[in-house]
Design goal:
Elements: H1 3-22, H2 33-40, H3 50-60, H4 67-97, H5 104-119, H6 122-128, H7 135-150, H8 154-167, H9 169-188, H10 196-209, H11 211-218, H12 247-254, H13 257-272, H14 277-295, H15 307-332, H16 339-350, H17 352-367, H18 372-381, E1 389-392, H19 395-406, E2 415-418, H20 425-433, H21 438-445, H22 452-461, E3 464-466, E4 480-483, E5 486-489, H23 496-514, H24 523-542, H25 546-557, H26 564-575
Parallel strand pairs: 1-2, 1-3
Antiparallel strand pairs: 3-5, 4-5
Length: about 575
């Protein structure tokens, strides 16, 4: 690289990382709860993706901002490194397909503009500003492609494959297809025979890459409050957060028609150059893995994007760079006055692409409230009495609680009891702090619905918050009085008047939640809110209080306009008399 190339590389790296750093917040979005638990809280989220915490560890030691913001800065640094690798790839492809005697600086300028377009896009910026974002997984795939392009050794490629295997199966697939052309060349090379020692060294490098699995496994023995109750291989196709989308609409909205068309042209140009075919095969393999990932319904939305999709988007832009560079070179070589000046103006015109991408990324950041999760936690648990016991029967709600505790937004005095995973270290620790829960544990261990005495005994000793399970005896519903997003279980049944007063008090809380947790503002927080409000509506329906049920359903519709349970309850209000059946509404 000459001085201009190095300057372009530095520009791409710094701008991509700096813009991502501008999006770092102390209250991470709910779509990245698992990454927050793993990186900020150093908690168990499954055996995969332990590399996130290892890479973020140095920045977590820097006394700058909160732990959550430091973890976000680690993702921003990784984003800048990924942009540097992508620039090297784009420059290599543009060089391989260029005509003879093409101005090298024009190639570098176009490659920088297109790579910035990719890394300033909303999908890369949302992941690059979040703790434990998917940028590291995408970076492993890009690193594999760079090694294949640069003629990397088997040991280096095996190390990257090992790291990819410790991260995610689809990341391993993307890295494998990226290095496959280079491995084929090495194995079939006539100049150098593959010896047994080479294979052993490659195997050792691959095993070294699996070290993050050991680190992640060690997190399983940490305190239960910092652990998710998930199986060993949790979320193998990408962590939760963000809904799956259709391929073509997603590609057109997130990448753009111009870049997609340029990618096709760039692929054709690369195929016509024998020296570029190996790199073309690597990039096309990455794109195909990304397409397959979307077909498998990995997270791919405005709030969460899986690593293979990020890598595929970058590969598309790299191929597009070769086509756009060829256009600029063709203009520069035209035998007309001011041809070079015209080519330079075209490069300037192409800078509109990264500016537009950055503008869209900033616009999406503004739509998401900066303290949305903190305000949600205050609304959900702020009204809870001191030292209350909270029964959590939903894994998603428990994930929100653990992530909130990791960033210091959850009250420490609340005793969280995950009733959906008993026995477990977390539930055993809760039982040790509150022995009155023993009868409730007995009922759950026997696989039967809790008896009234099992809930009344701890509720008489200290405040008990819970949500009503549709499978429970409907008489238990009369013990629940709404409080925050959950309900307080009273030792004795309560009348409709108390529940009506509680719903009236909730109006102010609901209005605050509407500012941060509606589907248009934050789909994940809206889903978490709807889960709890849905249980509230079911409890009121089980109690047979139809007038209060209509009000509870109105609250639910604010956060889940098309909720099927709400629709079912509305039909039963109209078509039935007396008690409303709810047992079939269990999740």
């Amino acid at each position: 690289m000459d001085a201009f190339d190095r300057a372009a590389l530095a520009l791409v790296t710094l701008v991509s990382g700096a813009v991502a750093a501008l999006g770092v917040v102390a209250s991470p979005p709910a779509s990245h709860d698992e990454g927050v638990v793993r990186v900020v809280g150093l908690g168990w989220t499954g055996l995969l993706r332990g590399l996130d915490a290892m890479v973020a560890a140095p920045l977590m030691l820097v006394p700058l901002g909160t732990r959550a913001s430091r973890a976000g800065l680690a993702s921003a640094v990784v984003t800048g490194a990924c942009a540097a690798v992508a620039f090297v790839l784009a420059r290599a492809v543009a060089t391989a397909v260029r005509p003879t005697n093409a101005p090298p600086r024009l190639l570098s300028a176009v490659a920088a503009a297109v790579v910035l377009t990719a890394f300033l896009s909303p999908m890369w910026q949302s992941e690059g500003a979040a703790p434990g974002g998917a940028v590291l997984g995408a970076g492993l795939v890009l690193a594999a492609a760079a090694l294949a392009c640069a003629g990397g050794t088997l040991r280096a490629m095996a190390l990257v494959l090992g790291l990819a295997a410790s991260y995610e199966p689809l990341v391993l697939a993307g890295a494998a297809v990226a290095v496959l052309p280079r491995v084929y060349d090495v194995v079939t090379s006539r100049e150098r025979r593959l010896e047994r020692g080479d294979a052993l060294r490659a195997a050792a490098s691959f095993a070294l890459g699996l070290v993050p699995l050991l680190f992640a496994f060690a997190l399983r023995r940490r305190v239960p409050e910092a652990a998710l109750l998930v199986p060993v291989f949790s979320s193998p196709l990408g962590e939760r957060g963000g809904a799956a989308v259709a391929l073509l609409p997603f590609a057109r909205s997130e990448i753009g028609d111009l870049v997609l068309a340029a990618c096709v042209v760039g692929g054709v140009l690369a195929w016509r150059k024998p020296g570029a075919r190996r790199l073309l095969a690597s990039l096309l393999g990455i794109v195909l893995v990304g397409v397959a990932a979307i077909a498998l319904r990995v997270p791919a939305s405005t709030s969460r994007v899986a690593a293979p999709v990020l890598a595929a988007s970058c590969a598309v832009h790299v191929l597009a760079a070769s086509a756009l560079a060829s256009v600029v070179v063709a203009i520069a070589r035209t035998r007309v006055p001011f041809a070079h000046a015209s080519a330079a103006l075209v490069v300037v015109l192409e800078l509109v692409l990264p500016v537009r991408a950055a503008d869209e990324a900033f616009a999406r950041r503004e739509k998401r409230p900066s303290r949305g999760t903190a305000l949600w936690n205050e609304a959900a648990w702020g009204a809870a009495p001191p030292a209350a016991v909270v029964l959590v029967d939903d894994a998603g709600t428990h994930r929100r609680i653990v992530a909130s505790r990791a960033v210091g937004q959850m009250r420490d005095d609340l005793v969280i009891v995950p009733t959906f995973a008993m026995p477990s270290r977390a539930s055993d620790r809760a039982l040790a702090s509150e022995p009155k829960l023993a009868s409730l544990y007995r009922d759950i261990a026997l696989g039967v619905n809790p008896e009234e005495l099992s809930l009344s005994t701890p509720a008489a000793h200290r405040p008990l918050l819970a949500t009503f399970d549709p499978r429970w005896d409907r008489n238990l519903a009369r013990h629940f009085v709404p409080l925050g997003l959950t309900a307080r279980f009273e030792p004795e049944p309560r009348g409709p008047t108390e529940r009506r007063r509680a719903l009236e008090l909730f109006t102010g809380v609901r209005e605050r939640l509407e500012r941060v947790a509606t589907p248009k503002r934050d789909a994940e927080l809206a889903s978490a809110t709807a889960t709890l409000l849905r249980r509230r509506a079911v409890a009121i329906a089980a109690a047979g209080e139809r007038d209060l049920l209509e009000r509870a359903l109105d609250d639910l519709r604010k956060f889940a306009p098309d909720d099927p349970v709400a629709s079912t309850l509305v039909r039963r209000i109209v078509t039935t008399k007396g008690a409303i059946e709810v047992k079939d509404l269990a999740p």
